[in-house]
Design a protein that fits this description.
seven-stranded mixed sheet, four-stranded antiparallel sheet, globular, 121 residues, 11 strands, mainly beta
Length: 121
């Protein structure tokens, strides 16, 4: 059983950097064939994919967020990170980390419980 747990500050000031950590247990983030993703859901809106880091360490981002986003990992501690720069109140959302199993049909099979982040002064 794979478990993912998000952590990070619940309140971020506008123009600052949002930093979150996803700690993974029960499965290595370097094992093929998985992508380790960040996804968010603003209040009253649909879920939005932010990006992923793959088992080989490659990353890929939503074009609409790419200029402000960085996803990295720490393999020794089996966790990965999200940095979102220059945040605005529109970045207020519940942020989730999730694992996508690429085989056979690219489905998210494990999710964290989500962490609420509010951007406000």
């Amino acid at each position: 059983q794979v478990q993912l747990q998000e952590s990070g500050p619940g309140l971020v000031l506008p123009s600052q950097t949002l930093s979150l950590t996803c700690t993974v247990a029960g499965g290595s983030i370097t094992t093929y064939p998985y992508h380790w993703s960040w996804i968010r859901q603003p209040p009253g809106k649909a879920m939005e994919w932010i990006g992923y880091i793959g088992d080989s360490g490659n990353s890929h981002y939503n074009p609409s967020l790419k200029s402000r986003t960085a996803i990295s990992r720490e393999t020794s501690r089996n966790r990965f990170f999200l940095q979102l720069n220059s945040v605005t109140p529109e970045d207020t959302a519940t942020y989730y980390c999730a694992r996508m199993d690429l085989l056979p049909n690219r489905k998210y099979d494990y999710w964290g419980q989500g962490t609420q982040v509010t951007v406000s002064s």
